[in-house]
Amino acid sequence: MINSIRAAVTCRWSARRIGRYLDADPSAILSARDVARLEGHLEVCARCSSALGEFRFLDRLLGSMTPTVDADSLSRMRGYLDRVEQTSGGDGRV
Amino acid sequence: MEQPRPADGSGATAEGAARFRAQVEPEIEVLLRVAGSLTANQADAEDLVQETLLRAYRAIDRFDGRHPRAWLLTILRNTNASLHRRKRPSVVEDEVLALGAPAFGKESSASAEDDAIAAEIGPELRAGIAALKPAFRQAVILVDVNDLSYAEAAAVMDVPVGTVMSRLSRARAKLREHLASAGHLRGAESEGGVR
């Protein structure tokens, strides 16, 4: 029984870190120790490994929805940037 | 020696102007993408970015140069809020974030298989995103769709990084449940395993 409780605690601990593990964001990097513990758990826990796969899949789907920036729009903004720099008061007037 | 400024005191010093070009121009595309998710149409997005660029130019000499993108996104957020106050004094918080035009089939897709999966599941995913609470939706659109870091998303949302992480976690869990209930996650678990 104590092993199943321990496993459940580790699953819960892992579930709370999978997002940070996948994102590897500079603001919330997991320690090497936590990465090792998480990866060790993922090797042996089918449920958590499955969850990781689903989150990875979701991440790919969301990433595929990144809107494309219209090239003309980008060009207009760069042109505006030029005008902002060139006008003497920096007020953006052409 | 103090840098000369325009006679009316606005604008940037020569050094500031040089930094402005170097640090701001690379971020225009990100600004347009984020502005697109905050506004109703492309014209409004461009207006927002233009006003942001102007304010950034005027503030460049006060910028420490350390995190240009987060700095610009903070200006974008504040500019968007003040533009909304001018147009519509009511609360901004309930604004529905737009996803913009779908990018299915864009050149940077990993594979034709990815395109096919995205095209099949896209509408369901969009429905799931639309069903999220606005704060959670905003987090997932900024971080997962627009690829901002936690800190950059925090700058746009005007909340601590921890709040971004919490909202993101809950949004992803909701989306996972939504897709699972629609039967779209069968087989996705094969992507499990360590990095």
Quick structural gist:
The complex is a heterodimer of chains A (94) and B (195). Helices cover 71% and strands 0% of the residues of chain A. Chain A is mostly helical and 94 residues long.
Describe the structure.
The complex is a heterodimer of chains A (94) and B (195). Helices cover 71% and strands 0% of the residues of chain A. Chain A is mainly alpha-helical and 94 residues long. The longest helix of chain A has 18 residues, at 46-63. The N and C termini of chain A lie far apart (75 Å). Chain B has eight helices and no strands. Residues 1-5, 89-96 and 100-109 of chain B have low confidence and may be disordered. The radius of gyration of chain B is 20 Å and the shape is elongated. With 195 residues, chain B is mainly alpha-helical. In chain B, 62% of the residues lie in helices and 0% in strands. The N and C termini of chain B lie far apart (53 Å). Chains A and B meet through helix 2, helix 3, helix 4 and helix 5 of A and helix 1, helix 2, helix 3, helix 5 and helix 6 of B.
SSE map:
The complex is a heterodimer of chains A (94) and B (195).
Chain A: H1 2-15, H2 18-23, H3 32-44, H4 46-63, H5 71-86
Helix pairs in contact in A: 3-4
Chain B: H1 14-24, H2 28-38, H3 42-59, H4 68-87, H5 112-130, H6 134-145, H7 150-157, H8 161-181
Helix pairs in contact in B: 2-3, 2-4, 3-4, 4-7, 5-8, 6-7, 6-8, 7-8
Keywords, separated by commas or semicolons:
heterodimer, A: 94 residues, mainly alpha, 71% helix, disordered C terminus, B: 195 residues, 8 helices, 62% helix, elongated, disordered N terminus
